[in-house]
Automatic annotation (TrEMBL), chain A:
It is found in: Cell membrane; Cytoplasm; Nucleus. GO terms for cellular component: basolateral plasma membrane; cell junction; cytoplasm; nucleus. GO terms for biological process: cell-cell adhesion; establishment or maintenance of epithelial cell apical/basal polarity; receptor clustering; receptor localization to synapse; regulation of signal transduction; Wnt signaling pathway. Keywords: Acetylation, Cell membrane, Cytoplasm, Membrane, Nucleus, Phosphoprotein, Wnt signaling pathway. This is Tax1-binding protein 3. GO terms for molecular function: protein kinase binding. Residues 38-59 are annotated as: Disordered. Residues 15-112 form the PDZ domain.
From TrEMBL, chain B:
It is a multi-pass membrane protein. This is Vang-like protein. Residues 1-46, 372-391 are annotated as: Disordered. GO terms for cellular component: plasma membrane. Keywords: Cell membrane, Membrane, Transmembrane, Transmembrane helix. Residues 34-43 have a biased composition (Basic and acidic residues). It comes from Kryptolebias marmoratus.
Amino acid sequence: MSFVPGQPVTAVVQRIEIQKLRQGDKLILGFSIGGGIDQDPGQNPFSEDKTDKGIYVTRISPGGPADVANLRMGDKIMQVNGWDMTMVTHDQARKKLTKQKEDVVRLLITRKSLEETVRLQLKSMLS
Amino acid sequence: MDNESTYSGYSYKSSHSRSSRKHRERRDRHRSKARDGAMRGDKSMVIQAPGEPLLDTESAMADERDDNWAETTTVVTGTSVDSISNEDLTRLSKDLEDSLPVDCRRYVSPALGAILGLFSVLSPLAFLALPQLLWRDTLDPCGTPCEGLYISLAFKLLILLISTWALFLRPPQATLPRFFVFRCLLLALVFLFVASYWLFYGVRVLEPRETDYRGIVGYAASLVDALLFIQYLALVLLEVRHLQPTFCLKVVRTTDGVSRFYNVGHLSIQRAAVWVLDQYYSDFPVYNPALLNLPKSILTKKLSSFKVYNLEEENSTNNSTGQSRAMIAATARRRDNSHNEYYYEEAEVERRIRKRRARLVVAVEEAFTHIKRHQSEESPTSSPKHPREVMDPREAAQAIFAPMARAMQKYLRATRQQCYHSMESIINHLQFCITHNMTPKAFLERYLSPGPTLQYLDNNRGLQWTLVSDEPVTASLHQGQVFCLKRLDFALVVTVTPLPFLRLDEEFIDPKSHKFVMKLQSETSV
């Protein structure tokens, strides 16, 4: 998940679709995010590369919509409903996730274990 | 009762001390004030000490009470054992004031100061000239040292004259009720110096016909030095001492509550009063008596709500107090809705003023578009066909005044300013603005906000203010003092507070120590 500035990012991503849950008069997703280009990347416990300023999932509330949709803690969110999340501020990310008019969000997330899985699969396919 | 003792104490003190004070004042007024003499026909303010009318009303009130109270009261009049009576006082002061015409009184004291100054400046020259004139033959010839002294004397005299002209040759701005202590001190000092020098000169030089001319020249030079030092003292006492701010004066106008704060230095009450009045004329918006009252509809409704019927017999004496007390209690108990009406009335007035103001602004803008400055070079195409009429500013102003006159009049009526601006003055102002290429907004600034009082004054007559104070007005300011400056229909109340003592500390922050880190990761739940 490291990136070289100026070069396109390549990553293995997984699509996750989360249905928002109505709680009171708000629609919630049931997880917490951290990170952003205006935050300190060195404090991020989930990133490999401590200069990565992307948006990470920091907490999943058990039983919530994100948990049901198989989102894991430590996932890096690359896109939300088509909007890029690799170069956004924390607040912009929050806004894209909490649009009250949409009741489903489609995320592209990446995690380290995905690469491992893909590599293992390729090895098993080739061998 | 305590009333009597207070009255008697006041009247005894005031009449006794006032008579002697008045006499002393008269003497000093003819002898004192600054040594300046130029004529300038500007405003002057006569500030008078608490005048006789105060005493008259008190003694009148005391007389009234005599009728009502029982027989054990003492009758209080304006006289006491040692002084002349009140009527004599007023007669005396009126006679003295009437004898000199008003404008002359302003210039008597500067003229005296000027005479004294001239005399003191000419004295050294006289010291030098008299031996030469009277016993020239017997004088010791005096060569180079004398010439050196002549040169120094000449330059010192020149400097003395220039600085006197620069500092003191100003017309006084105000006539103060009591003599100005510092000025009198300085004039007395000058007089003393010069008199003692002349005395010494007369006894030691003129009588024995002293032949040592160098000594005489040195003596004259020492007089000029002494005069320069007195002038330094005058500069410090009159001009410099009060510059460093020490007190903060709060000035409040009693009728509409407009207030300002000013910083002054060490001054006596009367000087501070003059200073405050100078600032008043340029800082305070003009006093408009029409703007003060609550609309009549609200007030009359409140007052005339109760009718009181008198059920007792007609010659009961303390009916009035009982009645008013009952009314006050009743009005206090009843639910009061007049604030509502006041609020809506005020909103309505505000709206009306804004509407008229909008109409006025539009009318003025349109009027100004009718007029254009005429360029001196003529373009050949336009002149033969349409010879435009060329007007001077006055005619131009009259031409464009007509379309805006009605809007202006309605606006001035709405803001109750119509007494301050006559049609003539508006046209004059319009002419002034046109001549100086001002925009309509610049023309209107005079009418849209009430300007300082100075704008509405005519400078021909002096202005009369009365200074009211508990303490003698030559005392200097100190904390907690209050004095009033009264005119006929309003007053300014001045409160004195000292400026706080400041403790200033130093702290050094290294410019390299300004470092920043990003905030901790913030986590938001979505």
